[in-house]
Amino acid sequence: MAIVETVLGLILIVLFSNLVNHYFQWLPVSLVQIFLGTLATLIFNLKIDLDASWFLLLFIAPLLYNDGRRFPRKELWKLKGAIFNNAILLVFLTMLIGGFLITLLIPKLPLPVGIALAAVLAPTDPVAVHSISKQVKLPDNILHLVSGESLINDASGLIGFKYALAVAVTGYFSLTHAVGDFFYVAIMGSIAGLILIGIVILAIEWLVVKGFNDVVFNTVLQVAVPFIIYLITEKYLHASGVIAVVVAGVFFASQRNNFVSVQPEINLVTERTWDIIVYLLNGTMFAILGVELPVAMQGAIQSDQVDTLRAFWLVGGVWLILLLIRVAWTFIYQLFDQQHESWRFRLRIALISGFSGVRGAITMAGALTIPVQIADGSAFPERSLVLFIAAGVIILSMVMAIIALPLFAGKSLAIQTRGANADLDANKSLLIEEEDDDSTDKTDKNETVVENLLSLNQAKLYLLKNAVRSLEEQRRQHNQLAVYQLILEYQYLIKRLEIVEEQAVGDSGIVQDELDLNRVAIKGELRELQRLYQTNQIREKIYLRYKKALAKQLKGINRGTTLPQFGLALNLRLSGRKIYRHFLIRWGTPQDEKYMVEVRLAERALAKAAIKTLSEYLRKPDVNEQAFNREAIYHLIIRYRSLIEKQKKQQENQLDPAVYQQQLRNLHLRSISVQRISLQYLIEQGYLDRRAAVALRQYINHEENLLLRVSSV
């Protein structure tokens, strides 16, 4: 019962602190939560057995996983060098230099204890940064750097603290063992995160393909991911669960578009659930920090061996040491930047970076794991003073950030870190548009809805087909690739719905049609591949590679397996191919460049041959074109045209990822608008009952909301 009361009390503190922050916005919510937690301890004698292992599992793992999911991937890659340096090198530099200076400041503190104290104070806490700087506009590079390094420095700081503490307790240290252990826990943690989240993504995709759209089940599955990954990595692999959940979060975000448009309601509910979880965990974490502060400071205040006033001065001294190390590191790091900025500008950036390095709950959780005794049974040296300094530096770093950041950064909008509001003229020759393409790749523009009342799936098909037609109307020379990609996504939904409708009447036409048409197209590709090789347009290596791949696809089709339309396995293969090509283009020889030209030639020629073969096949007198499902035909044509357009863009170096993503977003928003207009038509004409109309309107709203949320990441 005491646990239930404690949990409810912490939730009340979180709610009340945010209420206070609403009316007193100048007062950082994190400090309010710490104050209320401390007050609850003093009045109600509230105690929480803060075990670092469960604290990392219940609080740090989900929060860092959510950080990885929502961190701007473009910025993460752009600042990879600075983030790595701050998260790894700066942490260990702070440990060594900071630990040495701390022992000079406190002579009676053994060097291993000083290093341990510096290590546990090294990780920064972006939760605290966000909370104390809602009215501060940090420069984007500083904002993303502080957020990015916090994804990793928790792990490096805790690892350093672990070994420094071991030396303080046992007096033994092995550099070889420590370095080897660090690389093991880091590399194995990264691998474990990739593999485990890969399994989760494959499971989600399998559920999507099977049509299992239970919102609650999928939401619980995705929310449970960081806890499972952390636990498996830490308990069974003895690696860094922190790194594992960060890698998992970043990789999940990179693969989210595979199924985000297929199940918008599930993804939207999942995001809202994460909003609630992050809201509670952030607040509870600082409330617990407030509860533990009296425990950490009590020993030093009551001890006759520690001068309380001097202890406060030591807190300021240790904080100043950490600040100077971070400021100096940032200033020196900028000297290697190619931008020619004045020393005053660089000093300002360094000071902003220094003051934004706020310490938080991970520091307190680590400090409280310091044992009472060392190996020989004697008391741990200056344990009370170390806990007092750790707690004091947390509070002082927050207070100083409140005072200094507005002076150096100015006032503006809230920054977005953890805990923030978790809130495309057609090229006819290239596309091989035949005079009768309308019979193979376009839906009937005169199609009308049936006179009877439509089912939910029938109405959704009508909306999606109208969205596809609107995309075709918006297709221009500059946005064809984005149009084709979005049409493919809608076509996947259309095919799924038509399969459901066919299964309802005991038919499987669309599946068989897709198999038959794919077989025809691949045979056309094989003939074109043979022609390219025999005319010496491609080398033998490329010929054998594509022949093997096409033969494998044809074998799968003959077994009744349709080609994958999306998925992790497909994306991994394409990503590997992309990395290999990038390597050849950037570091390869002229011979390699010729190889890539031949690869692009082969892919475009095979796609064109597939479209031509399909067109010729459907015009045969003995083939009844009308017997084939129109969506199966259309989907194949669009898929090949998308491939042709992509190869064209890459060959001409016109594929700008930022422009492409903006085209996708604008086209998607317009197609959603078309769906909304189509729904209104169905409602006005009486083709839908009230329940179906509400469900479809919710579906469209979910798709739009999710698109806006994802595009903001």
UniProtKB/TrEMBL annotation:
Pfam families from the UniProt entry: Na_H_Exchanger
Protein name stated in the entry: Sodium:proton antiporter
Species of origin: Liquorilactobacillus nagelii
Predominant location category: membrane
This protein's GO CC annotations: plasma membrane
TM ranges: 7-24, 44-65, 86-106, 182-209, 215-232, 239-256, 276-297, 309-329, 349-372, 384-408
Domain Cation/H+ exchanger transmembrane: start-end pairs: 12-402
UniProt entry tagged with the keyword Membrane: yes
InterPro entries (UniProt xref): Cation/H_exchanger_CPA1, Cation/H_exchanger_TM
Keywords attached to this entry: Cell membrane, Ion transport, Membrane, Sodium, Sodium transport, Transmembrane, Transmembrane helix, Transport
Gene3D superfamilies (UniProt xref): 6.10.140.1330
GO molecular function, one term: sodium:proton antiporter activity
One GO BP annotation of this record: sodium ion import across plasma membrane
Subcellular location: Cell membrane
Membrane topology: Multi-pass membrane protein
